[in-house]
Write a structure and sequence with these properties.
Chain A has 25 helices and nine strands. By secondary structure, chain A is α/β, with parallel strands linked by helices. In chain B, a hairpin with a 4-residue loop joins strand 17 and strand 18. In chain B, helix 1 runs antiparallel to helix 3, helix 13 packs antiparallel against helix 14 and helix 15 packs across helix 16. The two termini of chain B are 20 Å apart. Classes of the chains: A alpha/beta, B alpha+beta.
Chain lengths: 439, 460
């Protein structure tokens, strides 16, 4: 797959699509427009046209691939087993190679984010600290009050209120590099702290470590970790994605661990596919294959090792919780049963099914930035579904979904809280300690 | 062939710019339907929203000699909506409103772009039922179902699309708007014209409104799987059930290849180690269902079933039926190209047909998966091949020819529910005989003398 383009990719991957149309009803963009180019099989037809030399990598082609959420709902629906993720990433990589999306500003921001911030974890944290200082110092409030925001270009002005609140402490201040359970250690695991998760939801990382410890796992969490490369691969920068994959494998030699744990659906989906990414790298190929076998979503791992049922409820009162499925957890990793099973373990919690729980919330990586209108429509649909359940909490296991849905519920004034399932579990375990029962 | 600018402008005048697509990126995705190895890019794709829109488009196309290919969701399996060179695709996907549902008269009035599933869901909200359920029902359009007279898994007991169409609004090839049929249970006024348009594959007119008959929703159903070591035993079970005067709603057959591919995809617990699986379902009054299910299970065992498994609940039953509906596409997991056939024989000839198909594929060194509606005598032998391998493709065509001839010899038909389209044309005259074939062409010529509606489909 190294340097593969649509023209050089194994043609059988394209042919795998026999255009039966079973993907159409699951595609949020086709649902919106009812036009084939906005559907999975339509996009594959365009990719095949490029592969056949019938179509060039045009601006229109780039626009279409940008309109695709990459939610992979089509991959779940596809009876023929089309590897849409690979086709999609190859197409986006082709687009970058041809510079078909264009725009100086776009190139600049791509350079800053993909080429710099998300390649250097300490630079990203520094940017995070600067952003937090800005948010907390009163400068942000001042800027908003004085109308200084009007100086921003319209696209940024619209996004400004969506800037996530940066956490007070990042994961390295909350989690020691090596932590051991109080009871006998049964497993040794590595904990990946992610990028957005680290800056915005470092508490979810702490909760994850706590839950692992409570279930007999020794947890290794190196203080500085590279980005997993998901953002790069998803946005057509496969070369940097490979660099990052190699760094990850070097930092976490997979033979040393029983499992490599991630708690972010978007990262996990990419993390499990290092082997195809590094297929043409003889020095890493085998370790990448072992790596893929060791990667686990935290919820999947807990169910696999037999999660201990908490003896205390996470809430003082009986509480109803609904569950939104991160696309890259349910479609990218086929993990759907386990989060519900975990929530089912919580005393005092009743799980209410969310209508359209597998329908994308519109977050989709940087989709809310690149395709704001469609992202808003999807968020509105998601928010309405959540409100209709009557639940007071919605659990979801991906930071992008978490931010997006929290914003939607906030705008709707719904008074519904968003939480990672693992945080509820951690909370229940902590209340055990508080109520004096044993662990 | 690019569309001349004045014609594009004319279509934009009728429909508005947003409803006329001509850019390559917009129209390449309309160069196929659900049929393998057939591809032709149209010159434009247009989206009418009303019957009047359709009428104006047809009149305009006629005046400018532009061929029209009508399309719904593009899930057809005989190439019926694959564009012809230079044609404009008239896509009805945005005419997708259910106009009325009348529980007193058990009818539903709809536009053609509504999906089959949405029709049944709407019926279900009134305790009613729209039974025809083609494999692609989640996305196939009801207009496409009528144009192809689609069948499905419940044909044995409930019949096919034709049995539920009470009236149609059709735009004729000259652009006139015509209505055929009525909401009356009995209606013998004039020729049964609606029946001419049902299954006409877009060659006689454009269906713009459909009045459908609904039936009461059955109160109970029981789904079961019977597993066999010999395909013949499965076929014998089907004959014995029908001979016992039981009409189940579903008697579906899957061979080992198909069951394995479906299980790979759907993980519903289909066995992958037996020669044949029968998926059977009976529905109706709870007492009758319990009695029939018990009889069917015991007949299956008597005919040599290795095991009979009853679905434990509604969710399991639905999962099994949904998995079966994906059989065709699931077979595509094995090879790059899947050529699906639709041969149908009188039920008494099924065992012979199944054996012949297996032998023919074996002799031609071809991989094949066979599944189908055994209760209807309707089989879908599916060749797993690669369109880039010309030697293998010629063996596929030879095998198909042999199977088609055998089908006709046994008194069968070359297509039970997919239509003739492009894929089955070469055998149609042979099946129909010269005079009936000529009558059909005369009808086409009488209604569409310039031949602009879906040219080259069914016959040349």
């Amino acid at each position: 797959m190294a340097g593969a383009t649509l023209r050089t990719i194994d043609y059988a991957v394209l042919q795998q699509c026999m255009h039966c149309g079973m993907c159409l009803p699951t595609c949020p963009t086709y649902d919106q427009t009812k036009q084939e180019r906005n559907s999975p099989r339509g996009r594959i037809a365009l990719m095949r046209a490029v592969a056949d030399g019938v179509l060039d990598v045009t601006h229109e082609f780039a626009e279409e691939m940008s309109y695709c959420l990459g939610c992979l709902a089509c991959q779940t629906a596809c009876p023929a087993g089309v590897n849409y993720a690979e086709l999609f990433e190859t197409a986006r990589s082709d687009i970058e190679r041809h510079d078909a999306q264009g725009g100086v500003a776009r190139r600049f921001w791509r350079g800053v984010t993909l080429g710099f911030l998300f390649m250097r974890p300490s630079a990203l944290r520094m940017a995070g600290r600067a952003l937090r200082w800005y948010q907390r110092s009163g400068l942000e409030a001042l800027a908003r009050r004085t109308g200084a925001m009007r100086l921003l270009p319209p696209a940024l002005r619209r996004l400004e209120p969506q800037t996530p609140r940066i956490a007070r402490k990042f994961s390295n201040s909350l989690i020691a590099a090596h932590e051991t359970p109080s009871a006998t250690s049964r497993y040794r695991v590595a904990l990946l702290t992610g990028c957005v998760q680290d800056l915005v939801f470092s508490d979810v990382n702490r909760d994850t470590a706590d839950v692992l410890l409570a279930n007999g796992c020794t947890v290794d969490t190196p203080p500085i970790q590279p980005c997993c490369g998901s953002l790069h691969a998803h946005n057509g920068d496969l070369e940097r994605a490979r660099v990052l994959a190699r760094r990850m494998i070097d930092l976490f030699p997979p033979d040393r661990y029983d499992a490599i744990i991630t708690n972010a659906g978007g990262c996990g989906s990419h993390l499990r596919r290092y082997a195809p990414l590094l297929h043409d790298d003889p020095a890493y190929r085998e370790r990448a294959a072992l790596w893929d076998r060791k990667v686990r979503d935290i919820q999947e791992w807990l169910i696999e090792i037999g999660c201990r049922i908490p003896e205390a409820p996470p809430f003082a009162e009986p509480t109803s919780v609904t569950y939104h499925e991160s696309c890259h957890l349910v479609h990218g990793q086929k993990i759907s049963r386990e989060p519900r099973a975990l929530l089912g373990l919580l005393p005092g919690v009743s799980l209410v099914e969310l209508p359209e729980s597998t329908w994308c919330c519109g977050s989709a990586g940087i989709y809310a930035i690149t395709q704001p209108e469609q992202a808003e429509r999807l968020l509105g649909r998601k928010t309405a579904n959540i409100v209709a359940t009557g639940a007071s909490w919605v659990a979801t296991a991906n930071p992008g979904c978490h931010l997006q849905i929290a914003r939607g519920l906030d705008v709707a004034g719904a008074g519904i809280h968003v939480v990672h399932p693992v945080s509820l579990l951690a909370r229940a375990y902590r209340r055990e300690d508080a109520s004096g029962s044993s662990t | 062939m690019a569309l001349p600018q004045p014609i594009a402008d004319g279509l934009v005048n009728i429909l508005g710019a947003g409803s006329v697509l001509t850019k390559p990126e917009d129209i390449i995705p309309y160069s196929f339907d659900g049929t393998a190895a057939l591809r032709q890019t149209p010159s434009a794709v247009v989206f009418p929203h009303t019957s009047e829109d359709v009428s104006r488009c047809v009149k305009f196309a006629l005046a400018h000699h532009v061929p029209i290919v009508t399309r719904g969701s593009g899930t057809g399996l005989s190439g019926g909506s694959v564009p012809t060179d230079g044609s404009v695709v008239l896509c009805l996907a945005q005419m997708n409103k259910i106009l009325d549902i009348d529980p007193k008269n058990l009818v539903l009035l709809t536009q053609p772009g509504v999906t089959t599933l949405a029709i049944d869901e709407a019926a279900s909200r009134h305790g009613l039922f729209y039974p025809p359920d083609p494999g692609s029902m989640r996305i196939s359009s009801i207009g496409g179902n009528v144009a192809e007279n689609s069948g499905g898994l419940r044909g044995l007991k409930y019949g096919v699309t034709r049995d539920y169409v009470m009236a149609l609004e059709v735009i004729l090839p000259d652009g006139r708007i015509a209505r055929f049929g009525s909401a009356c249970v009995k209606d013998v006024a004039g020729y049964s014209m609606k029946d001419l348009f049902i299954g006409s594959e877009g060659s006689l007119g454009v269906i713009t409104e459909i009045l459908l008959k609904l039936v009461p929703r059955p109160l109970a159903r029981q789904t079961m799987l019977a597993l066999y070591d010999r395909i013949e035993d499965a076929a014998d079970t089907v004959s014995a059930i029908i001979a016992a005067r039981i009409i189940p709603c579903t008697l579906e057959f899957l061979d080992q290849m198909t069951a394995t591919c479906v299980e790979d995809f759907a993980h519903v617990g289909l066995p992958t180690d037996c020669a044949a699986v029968l998926l059977m379902e009976t529905d109706g009054h709870p007492a009758a269902v319990a009695d029939e299910a018990a009889q069917m299970a015991s007949i299956a065992r008597a005919k040599g079933a290795r095991d009979v498994r009853l679905a434990k609940n509604e969710a399991e039953a639905l999962a099994l039926a949904a998995a079966r509906r994906n059989a065709f596409a699931a077979l595509a997991r094995r090879r790059p190209t899947t050529i699906l056939e639709d041969f149908t024989v009188p039920r008494s000839e099924l065992a012979k047909m199944v054996t012949f198909i297996a032998e023919t594929a074996g002799a031609a060194r071809l991989q094949i998966g066979t599944f189908g509606h055994m209760g209807d005598g309707n089989l879908h032998p599916t060749f797993l091949t690669d369109e880039r391998d010309s030697d293998e493709m010629s063996r596929v065509h030879h095998a198909l020819d042999l199977i088609a001839k055998k089908t006709l010899e046994l008194g069968g038909t070359i297509t039970g529910e997919h239509g003739v389209g492009l894929a089955k044309k070469e055998w149609l005259r042979q099946q129909m005989g010269d005079s009936s074939f000529e009558v059909m062409k005369q009808i086409k010529h009488a209604l569409d003398p310039t031949g602009l509606l879906n040219p080259g489909k069914i016959f040349d």
